[in-house]
């Protein structure tokens, strides 16, 4: 069990959560409220930007891919309004390039979904420069491979032939992979 940093060290406990997966948004909002945060939940980039325009929060948890845009736009706007704000990015499509981009835009950490509330709190409150502990149950190599294939498939507008070409994979092999359930 990892030690969770103290929220009591922060006077402003306002937290903006921007996530388009409604059940996950509700669960995370309740969990963060129970840990002492004052939560505002938004389900789109537009709503998140509007809230930041009214009152920039001290903390933010933002999904990378939202229905109406990129969550990094929310992080960027937050850092412009409130440079001391601490934001983390959540995504189901993790890769090194997007993690680097998120950190360059001002995020303090980058977590893969599903992340539990304790991991989110630890990332939000981690001392700058201090590395957070690795997750207790990281994604398996098979799951990471499956996520990568799904991301490329979506980027190719669900075109199997184009996805197979970009992945340097036989089309039938890709079709078999896509037909299976996601590994754990």
UniProtKB/TrEMBL annotation:
The modification 4-aspartylphosphate is found at residue 63. One of its GO terms (biological process) is phosphorelay signal transduction system. Keywords: DNA-binding, Phosphoprotein, Transcription, Transcription regulation, Two-component regulatory system. The keyword Phosphoprotein applies. The keyword Amino-acid biosynthesis does not apply. InterPro entries: ActR_PrrA_rreg (IPR047772), Bact_response_regulator (IPR050595), CheY-like_superfamily (IPR011006), Sig_transdc_resp-reg_receiver (IPR001789). One of its GO terms (molecular function) is DNA binding. Residues 14-128 form the Response regulatory domain. PANTHER family: PROTEIN PILG (PTHR44591:SF14), STRESS RESPONSE REGULATOR PROTEIN 1 (PTHR44591). NCBIfam families: ActR_PrrA_rreg. This is Fis family two component transcriptional regulator. It comes from Rhodopseudomonas faecalis.
